[in-house]
């Protein structure tokens, strides 16, 4: 008998779970787009969008998905025939490069294995060899959503500097912004692209391009009126923010999502994602003690805290996805960009997620392992629960911890309390 009725859990790596508060903020009549509240709300988004990316630079908002942010970034800083270097460690790195090629750019792809990050030393080697300075920009995904691998943005900036190269540094944070630590200015990034439907917890439809003055000065001839970021960041009239009609209800939703991030604090948001990822990885490592289950990225330091890619064995990945969705209401991500695709699945743990949601997802996956007779190690849920307890205890305020310890030593007080 299926037990999937009730609220389903979308555990794919984006779109992520939408908070009820965001949905409620969007549930309104269309506002006046010519004056008043919507204008004030839009203005208020800019400093918070800069804050979440840790930049004092500019941010342009586009009506579109992450691919639109790719094109917007390239359009503003390149001219047809320019050479760019794409450091690709998965499907989305290649996708950005393919878009660049279709825009008339000369694309060199530096390809890396899909089970790990980009190697900074190889990037440095290619840039050192470019003595003529032909490469105008380096494109990198901090996290490639297809693999769950996280590249070291700081180390790659150091590689560019060590090579003495002038290439602009463009980083895709579509999967990672608001999940994995990211500090645009401190890490020396020139252009950051992102979107609203993952760590920013808003329905898909908005994309963001953060850029500094160095990037703006490299303006090329690929830019067109719609993609031009200058009018969007310095609009003379309101409609220029979006080169047309505002995405009204998305703006209300984004405002509420940013309020939630501000209330939690971006450092705490990062810590929460790290702790939940620790629970997930611990469970999968236990399941992997027996049978085929293997995490795509072996080294924890190179894993994203937003998405995990898992090898489950031929046909097992697809079987788990079907069983979890149909029998328990848990939707897992497909094995994107991996072969055989039915051997892989992905678990998104980004944005509006907490410990009990993750424990529920892990329990459902274990039930799917049993139901599909997929061999696996034991003790995964217990191990994840211990990780949860450890993180929760570490995060507990000292006074509360002392009080809890004191209460535990007084059985009579405990009985009265409970």
Task: Give a structural overview.
- With 418 residues, the chain is α/β, with parallel strands linked by helices.
- It folds into two domains: 9-14 and 265-400, Aspartate Aminotransferase, domain 1 (Alpha-Beta Complex); 31-262, Type I PLP-dependent aspartate aminotransferase-like (Major domain) (Aspartate Aminotransferase, domain 2, 3-Layer(aba) Sandwich).
- It contains 15 helices and 14 strands.
- A seven-stranded mixed sheet has the order 2-10-9-8-5-3-4, with helices on both faces. Strands 1-13-14-12-11 form a five-stranded mixed sheet. It has a two-stranded antiparallel ribbon with strand order 6-7.
- Helix 5 runs parallel beside helix 6.
- The longest helix has 22 residues, at 266-287.
- The two termini are 37 Å apart.
- The relative contact order is 0.15.
- Mean pLDDT is 94; it is low at 398-418.
Strand order of the largest sheet: 2-10-9-8-5-3-4
**Do you know the CATH topology of the largest domain?**
Aspartate Aminotransferase, domain 2
CATH C-level name of the largest domain: Alpha Beta
- Total count of helical runs of at least 4 residues: 15
**Per the principal axes of the C-alpha atoms, what is the gross shape?**
globular
First and last CA, distance: 37 Å
Total count of strands = 14
């Amino acid at each position: 008998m299926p037990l999937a009725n009730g609220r389903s859990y979308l555990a794919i790596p984006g779109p992520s779970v939408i908070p009820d508060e965001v949905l409620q903020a969007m549930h309104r009549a269309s506002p006046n787009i010519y004056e008043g509240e919507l204008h004030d709300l839009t203005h208020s988004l800019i400093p918070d969008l800069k804050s979440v990316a840790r930049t004092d630079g500019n941010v342009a908002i586009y009506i579109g998905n992450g691919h639109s942010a790719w094109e917007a970034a390239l359009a503003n800083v390149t001219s047809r025939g320019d050479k760019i270097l794409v450091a690709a460690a998965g499907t989305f790195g290649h996708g950005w490069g393919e878009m660049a090629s279709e825009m008339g750019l000369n694309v060199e792809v530096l390809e890396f294995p899909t089970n790990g990050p980009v190697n900074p030393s190889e990037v440095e080697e290619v840039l050192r060899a470019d003595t003529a300075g032909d490469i105008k920009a380096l494109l990198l995904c901090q996290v490639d959503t297809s693999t769950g691998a996280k590249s070291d943005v700081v180390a790659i900036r150091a590689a560019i500097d060590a090579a003495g190269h002038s290439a602009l540094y463009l980083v895709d944070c579509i999967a990672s912004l608001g999940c994995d630590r990211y500090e645009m200015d401190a890490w020396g990034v020139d252009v950051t692209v992102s979107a609203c439907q993952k760590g920013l917890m808003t329905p898909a439809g908005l994309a963001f391009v953060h850029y500094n003055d160095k990037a703006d000065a490299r303006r090329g001839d690929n830019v067109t009126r719609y993609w031009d970021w200058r009018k969007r960041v310095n609009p003379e009239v309101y409609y220029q923010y979006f080169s047309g009609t505002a995405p009204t209800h998305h703006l209300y939703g984004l405002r509420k999502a940013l309020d939630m991030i501000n209330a939690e604090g971006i450092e705490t948001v990062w810590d929460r994602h790290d702790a939940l990822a620790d629970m997930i990885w611990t469970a999968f490592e236990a399941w992997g003690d027996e049978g085929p289950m293997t995490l795509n990225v072996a080294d924890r330091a190179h894993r994203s805290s937003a998405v995990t890619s898992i090898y489950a064995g031929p046909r097992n990945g697809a079987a788990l996805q079907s069983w979890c969705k149909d029998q328990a209401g848990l939707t897992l991500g497909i094995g994107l960009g991996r072969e055989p695709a039915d051997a892989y699945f992905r678990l998104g743990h980004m944005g509006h997620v907490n410990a009990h949601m993750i424990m529920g997802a892990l329990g459902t996956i274990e039930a799917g392992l049993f139901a599909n007779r997929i061999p696996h190690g034991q003790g995964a849920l217990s191990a994840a629960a211990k990780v949860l307890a450890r993180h929760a205890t570490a995060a507990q305020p000292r006074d509360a911890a002392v009080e809890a310890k004191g209460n535990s030593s007084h059985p009579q007080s405990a009985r009265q309390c409970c």
